[in-house]
User: Which sequence fits this backbone?
C-alpha cells in the first residue's frame, strides 16, 4: 500500500481558443460527401452564353448589312456564335472544359466591343459608345459566371469517373480462381 495518495497531474489550459475541427474530420464524421449536382449558376451561365451568341449574330448582321456577301468578318462572327452556343451547351451539361469554351466565347466579343467603344469615343459618337457599352453586359456577365469555382468544378474533366485501379505487378490476369 502506497504511503502517499496518487497525485493527479493538472491539465494545462491554454489562453488560446481551441482550433476548429478540420474540414476533413467534419466530413468523415458526417459520412461520405454526396456527389455534387449541377450548380445553380450553370443555367445562368448558359443563358448568358446564348445572349453572347445573339449579340455576336447581331454584330455579324451589322457588318454584313452594308456589303452583303460572305466576307471574312461575317465568317468570324458566325464562328463566335457557334463557339458561344457550344460553350453554353457544354456548361449546361457539365462536359469537360466547358467553362473554358464559354469564357473564350465571351472574351473575344468583349474585347471587340471595348475597342468599338473606344473608337466611337475617339470620333465623338456618344450614341455609339452607349450602345457598345450596353452590349458589353452579355460578355461580361458570361465571363463572370463562367470562371467561378462551381462552374469550373462542374465542368472538370473526368468529374464523374472513378480512377482506374492499376493491376498488381507480377500477377497479370490472376482473377478469382
Assistant:
Amino acid at each position: 500500500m502506497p504511503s502517499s495518495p496518487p497525485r493527479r497531474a493538472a491539465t494545462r489550459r491554454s489562453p488560446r481558443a481551441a482550433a476548429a475541427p478540420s474540414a476533413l474530420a467534419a466530413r468523415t464524421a458526417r459520412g461520405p460527401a454526396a456527389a455534387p449536382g449541377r450548380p445553380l449558376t450553370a443555367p445562368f451561365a448558359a443563358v448568358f452564353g446564348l445572349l453572347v451568341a445573339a449579340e455576336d449574330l447581331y454584330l455579324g448582321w451589322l457588318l454584313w448589312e452594308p456589303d452583303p456577301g460572305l466576307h471574312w468578318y461575317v465568317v468570324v462572327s458566325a464562328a463566335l456564335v457557334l463557339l458561344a452556343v457550344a460553350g453554353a451547351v457544354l456548361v449546361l451539361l457539365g462536359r469537360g472544359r466547358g467553362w473554358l469554351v464559354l469564357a473564350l466565347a465571351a472574351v473575344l466579343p468583349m474585347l471587340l466591343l471595348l475597342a468599338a467603344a473606344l473608337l466611337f469615343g475617339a470620333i465623338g459618337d456618344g450614341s455609339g459608345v452607349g450602345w457598345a457599352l450596353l452590349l458589353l453586359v452579355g460578355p461580361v456577365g458570361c465571363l463572370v459566371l463562367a470562371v467561378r469555382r462551381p462552374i469550373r468544378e462542374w465542368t472538370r474533366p473526368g468529374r464523374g469517373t472513378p480512377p482506374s485501379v492499376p493491376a498488381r505487378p507480377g500477377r497479370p490476369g490472376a482473377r478469382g480462381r
